[in-house]
Amino acid sequence: MENFKKQKVAVLGFGLEGQDLCRFFLKQGAKITVFDQKEKLDGKEYQELKKASVDFKLGKDCLQDLSSGFSFIFRSPGFKRLLSEILAVEKQGTKISSATKLFFELCPGRIIGVTGTKGKGTTATLIAEILKKDNQSVFLAGNVGQPMLSLLPRIKKGDWVVLELSSFQLQDLEQSPQIAVVLFIASEHLDYHQDQKEYIEAKANIVCHQKESDIAVLNADDLTSSSFASLTPAKIFCFSRKKKINGAFIQNREIYLFQEKLGSVDNLQLLGEHNWDNVCAAMLASSLTGATLESIKETIFSFKGLEHRLEYVRIINNIAFYNDSFSTTPETAIAAIKSFKKPLVLIAGGSEKGSDYSQLGQEITKSTVKTLILIGQMAEKIKKAVLTAGFQGEILFRPSEKMKEIVQLALDKANPGEIILLSPACASFDMFENYKDRGQQFKKYAQALQE
Fold it and tell me: In this structure, how many other beta carbons lie within 10 angstroms of the beta carbon of residue 339?
């Protein structure tokens, strides 16, 4: 490990990852400057770190001061790896890194990394739950679980660390996990990456640096995920929900692990066929750590999923509310819509992520969606996509910017026996702080409705 004592370290971004980096470097005795594009920061963490002599450069143009002699720059996901300011100081010899990269260098345990366009949080959590049930020592970190650097003092050799890894975290990784799990990969974050090629190359780092003794768990139904087999010397294992393979698969609605039948998908508490992928991937990865069939079986059939992922909220007048605010792409909204057979009132729309909505338009048109409530910046694009596809249902176009009114309107439009689904297919930053804020508001106002 580098000696950071008295070294000038820049931390880009003051989210959870940035705060984790600050706490780590304070213990190392480094001189820390945080760069964040917000005009003003507040809160307990900010006050404590300011008191501990951490400097802060804030505002849209904060990176102008990046060239003032830092030995190391640690970026968090909010800052693109290929920003001109970062590339300029890298040319001058400054080392560019991230919390994830540092964690891989320092972690004494064994790492299971999970990536994909969607489903990685569910899959990572499910793997951790199976290993816990199996009495293995396991930690869950990355975008779910705890900040990873804060875990380092507690991790021992032989422990497992399950990491949910986004493209931002994988982009400049120079080490790969002992077990790499790759779910389906679609167009995503094209507002962040230069193009689809750069996005896939970032994802590929999860397998690129593996050794022959490592394992790659790949999605046999997804061309991009399957193609990663040619990028790694690791042993390859696959999962599928469409065909019988030597791994984990679904056949005739039955779940199999290496030819062993575990039970029916109808007994899963996770909704939606897309979650069959996540269950298969988690089962397979867990079994490759040595987890018993009993631990796997018991966990997959009792696991209820994560907040904001097709989360059941409540039922009122025989109308059920589901919160899928984590759906920030057309692909995830399609998966959510396909999870229901009853008539749907769908709330969709939000801020731009560079997505193509034509497929979503086709899916909505042939689905059970009867009323479409469109909100946010992308409302126009989604409206155009559904009308082009020939949607005959009712469209309510930007009826309100307040979630309370949107929820009430959805209830007014639904009949007993129908479903109200928030599955936006877009980011949330036009009307909400983030997807969690959007989902929490949806749940709060749905819970407050009077029968």
Answer: 20
Q: What is the DSSP string of 377-400?
A: TTHHHHHHHHHHTT--SEEEES--
- The string over 54-65, giving b where at least 16 C-beta atoms fall within 10 Å of a residue's C-beta and e elsewhere, is bebbeeeebbee
SS3 337: helix
Domain range annotation of the chain? 8-98, 107-302, 311-448
230: left (phi over 0), alpha (psi -120 to 50) or beta: alpha
Tell me the C-alpha distance between 45 and 131, whole Å.
32
Dihedrals φ, ψ of 248, to 5°? -115, 135
pLDDT for residue 1 is more than 80: no
311-448 has which CATH code? 3.90.190.20
User: What is the band of 67 on the pLDDT scale with cuts at 50, 70, 90?
Assistant: confident
Place of tokens 């790659």: 216
What is the chain's mean pLDDT, rounded? Answer: 94
Taking only the tens place, the pLDDT of each residue in 46-61 is: 999 999 999 999 999 9
Q: Which residues make Cβ contacts (< 8 Å) with residue 448, sequence separation at least 6?
A: none
What CATH superfamily is the domain 107-302?
Answer: Mur-like, catalytic domain (3.40.1190.10)
What is the length of the chain?
A: 451
**CB-based burial label for 318 (10 Å; 0-12, 13-18, 19+):** exposed
Cβ(72)–Cβ(95) under 8 Å?
yes
Label residue 383 left, alpha or beta by phi (over 0 means left) and psi (-120 to 50 means alpha).
alpha
Q: Which CATH number fits domain 8-98: 3.40.50.720, 3.10.150.10, 3.30.360.10, 3.30.70.100?
A: 3.40.50.720
Q: What is the pLDDT of residues 97-130, one digit of tens each?
A: 999 999 999 999 999 999 998 889 999 999 999 9
Beta bridge partners, 190, equal: none
- What is the structure's pLDDT at 143? 78
Burial bucket for residue 120 (CB in 10 Å: 0-12, 13-18, 19+): buried
Q: Please check whether the two domains, 8-98 and 311-448, share a CATH topology.
A: no
SS (H, E, C) 203-244: HHHHHHCCCCCCEEEEECCCHHHHHHHHHCCCEEEEEECCCC
Question: 10 Å Cβ neighbour count for 447?
Answer: 12
